[in-house]
Amino acid sequence: MYRSHNNGELNATYINKEVTLAGWVQKSRDKGFMIWVDLRDRYGITQLIFDEQRTDKAVFEKAKSLGREFVIQVKGTVIERESKNATMATGDIEILVSELNILNAAITPPFTIEDETDGGEDIRMKYRYLDIRRNPVKNSLLFRHKVAMGVRKYLSDLDFCEVETPYLIKSTPEGARDFVVPSRMNQGQFYALPQSPQTFKQLLMVGGMDKYFQIVKCFRDEDLRADRQPEFTQIDCEMAFVEQEDILNVFEGLTRHLLKELKGIEVAQFPRITYDYAMKTYGNDKPDIRFDMKFGELNSVAQHKDFSVFNSAELVVGIAAANCASFTRKEIDALIDWVKRPQVGASGMVYVKCEEDGTFKSSVDKFYDQEDLKKWSEATNAKSGDMIFVLSGPADKTRTQLSALRMELATRLGLRNPEVFAPLWVVDFPLLEWDEESGRYHAMHHPFTSPKPEDMKLIESEPGKVRANAYDMVLNGNEIGGGSIRIHDKDLQSRMFSLLGFSPEQAEDQFGFLMNAFQFGAPPHGGLAFGLDRLVAILGGQETIRDFIAFPKNNSGRDVMIDAPSAIDATQLKELYIKLDL
Amino acid sequence: MYRSHNNGELNATYINKEVTLAGWVQKSRDKGFMIWVDLRDRYGITQLIFDEQRTDKAVFEKAKSLGREFVIQVKGTVIERESKNATMATGDIEILVSELNILNAAITPPFTIEDETDGGEDIRMKYRYLDIRRNPVKNSLLFRHKVAMGVRKYLSDLDFCEVETPYLIKSTPEGARDFVVPSRMNQGQFYALPQSPQTFKQLLMVGGMDKYFQIVKCFRDEDLRADRQPEFTQIDCEMAFVEQEDILNVFEGLTRHLLKELKGIEVAQFPRITYDYAMKTYGNDKPDIRFDMKFGELNSVAQHKDFSVFNSAELVVGIAAANCASFTRKEIDALIDWVKRPQVGASGMVYVKCEEDGTFKSSVDKFYDQEDLKKWSEATNAKSGDMIFVLSGPADKTRTQLSALRMELATRLGLRNPEVFAPLWVVDFPLLEWDEESGRYHAMHHPFTSPKPEDMKLIESEPGKVRANAYDMVLNGNEIGGGSIRIHDKDLQSRMFSLLGFSPEQAEDQFGFLMNAFQFGAPPHGGLAFGLDRLVAILGGQETIRDFIAFPKNNSGRDVMIDAPSAIDATQLKELYIKLDL
């Protein structure tokens, strides 16, 4: 062992002890007769002192040669510091060095290894091993480990069994695009990397495993939107002999446990709202409920007046921004411009100031009197001093726009505190969604999700209205987990495939093994999956997942550090029975 | 929830309680007026009773229809059993059923769902979800989970951080064959699936993570020998600022902990033997030391007599089989035939009976007198009543043959008790091994392994004699883990690549990122990896890893349950810029 202690543990109780430390030179201050070095490792920083008076001359000279990020080993005595630093665990002491051993020199790093670095995203990714030396990244990775261990421990204690499912599976055209792997031993055939272990966990339920979980990598070959990764990690779970209520309770328990253990925060029972309610109230199926600003529908109180814009709209809907009546004309115009940006796409916005004296001042005073506006304020739950913003147009589109405005206002008003946690369940998702492009229904969750029995009567006549036993856990405006009660009946599964446009042959070819399994006694079962990357980032109080992944890929799916993907040998291709087709 | 209790927890304390149970019909005995059903789930079996006298007629009739593996839910009362079964946790009670709900019917399974099944390997794999219902497989998976949790907990408590490394990495021609993944977004380029996270864990050490572990899938596209899988799981570990001794201590501690926690077995400090000693003493670098039978070299006492076979041999070497002097001529001949099989390849075998009276009787009495044979018995540590078997020929080949015989004898003599655990370390492996085929040296462990500093003087003159800081943990004749202290110096790494036949360009192209990283202050580091599949199987007292893997592949790398790999669409190929080349 190159050290007797790490750089985070020495304090005044060690004074006069001989110690051996090792680590990186964080910085070095040379005062001529005295040299101080901050020695860093994963656990902290310890100050070293080399003193012309007290340090051997050769050691002192060697200390002068130390550069940033040199790896050194020192022996010395713990002494009391003259100027103590109360913000550091080791701030009361320093090490008077007697021996210095340079374990490895370092060339100058391409960016500063500090909490706030001068390195941009690209250079940090190329030298990710240096980036990981920085506290924000290092601590994110340590935090991720804590979350994963917390999940494993909690679920194991509830008798869940972690089962590793295979990575080399079968490609299915349904859903997102698969990554595929040519098989050398099975000429002309390919494995696929799993988008999720969905069918395997269902087979484990058929196999009687009863309670399964796995923290597992999944793969999707999608064009990468911001903050998406081609490989990502799921906390994948499944239970047998359960109903939706049981699953919500177990995984609400898990999330509450994590919040308590990792953040010290006690959260009450999660609110449960339906998908329909979420869409109507927040314009969004993953509402951020750290703040209120619920939608107020204004059709009944804003239409049938002389304002043709509202009269012709399918939906007139507003929100009350608390304490914003004092917005200046300029601030309001900026917000109107914001909703008119192509990314949001509103054609305009009406506002109403709810003055402190109980009167209203709006941009549509020409059409609406105080009595009308009072009704608007009631519908949007606005109080004196608030500002109401109103959008109108086609219902779905307008809700989406108002949802965007709601989030933007919350950001501007500082209502999205990353250290406040507001989880909830959204339930009763539609089973199917219509896809304009392919002119058919798609499974909103996936083809294994069970419809609500009471809605089965609509399945032929109005399939779009059938609700599913499907649920999402939402945290601070992010879907962090989602799942469903599955179909466990062969005939119903078969009918579902046909509803989704599978021919019987396609269904058999792709999922025959699952339907076959259902014949041998499949129990009722259901589950869910959490996105670990996102969950960890949110619990860590961050917007982006990238620093919670040790070696992330960029938006072109490249690992710029190792330079992958890359060309491979012709002989390698030949062995795999493929050739390039550029 | 479909149940109030599981099928393993009810006992006499529950008598008269109303319960709801769910599970599979293990078997049903219909006595006409009474029907007993064994209801099974992951947790156990509970006996149900339907009684013509006491059970509702409709329920009784329904019970008659129950077949094997039907999934049912019952309500009923816990009553005392008339004929108790002390071997079952629930053997004191049964459930007098009042309600019966068939959750799912089942067709007849293709093999019996019993501990001893009538299903062969192929059919069990095709219907693996049924196989998992059997105790031996189910318990193996539960045991695997316990081992994995035990490892995670132990290492986390020692401040190891589990870090997920990427699965989509870069192909390197060194080592085994990679599985590759064509990239759609990077035309004509391929990712590779990792054979191990070796370079990433080293970069984490450069990044200051200090102590890393990961339980991680790895991939090798090799022709599958028996009991190998194309995807397998490693416990992958790395530490910084350590020497070999530190690593041996930590992972010996882990293994000792697992043996204690999971098997209740206390093991003393592991013996440490060198590679050279292992090869000379056991003919094998992974010796099974549950039994002795060390090699005795007989050159000095068996050569220079009139037996030309021995005189012309590079090595004459024997082992003493304890208490085998009583072997019949037939038994001896069978063993001679065994060593002469092509798989072993000996040309013949000499034997010496060490009679109870202290005399010797050998197959070469013509050439050797009692005095000679006494020396043989001393060299092989044979006692009265033992039998000495002697092979001769080229040294390496003969040792391998005698090693095979040693294992065979141990098997025949019942010395390989799977519930006895004899771990050890084999250290000081050679750095390089000569590969006849390519006419050059290969890295015995991998190209990142550091040579012993004291052997560096031989690196140009006699590279084959240079020893590495490399070590294996061996358990019951299996290598369950191996690792090394790594090179952390750019120049030495570069020299190593050149020794292994890399041109500077190839080294830069494939491992430039690692050598580059070493320039920025790489700490001394090292680690090891355990094969989890094998470790779990051995701890579980089994020879084969297959039942410790939920969904294994067969020897052609196929998953016969889901029928993977399989053909993929032409459009999918097109998108990936590849075509078939059959």
Automatic annotation (TrEMBL), chains A, B:
Similarity comment: family membership: Belongs to the class-II aminoacyl-tRNA synthetase family. Type 1 subfamily.
Organism: Flavobacterium paronense
EC id: 6.1.1.12
Domain Aminoacyl-transfer RNA synthetases class-II family profile, chain residue ranges per copy: 151-552
Region of interest (Aspartate), ranges: 198-201
GO MF terms held by the record: aspartate-tRNA ligase activity
Localisation: Cytoplasm
Keywords: Aminoacyl-tRNA synthetase, ATP-binding, Cytoplasm, Ligase, Nucleotide-binding, Protein biosynthesis
Self-association and partners: Homodimer.
Principal place of residence: cytoplasm
Pfam family, one: GAD
Name recorded for this polypeptide: Aspartate--tRNA ligase
Residue sites binding ATP per the record: R220, D221, E222, Q229, E479, G531, L532, D533, R534
Residues that bind L-aspartate: E174, R220, H445, R486
Function recorded in the entry: Catalyzes the attachment of L-aspartate to tRNA(Asp) in a two-step reaction: L-aspartate is first activated by ATP to form Asp-AMP and then transferred to the acceptor end of tRNA(Asp).
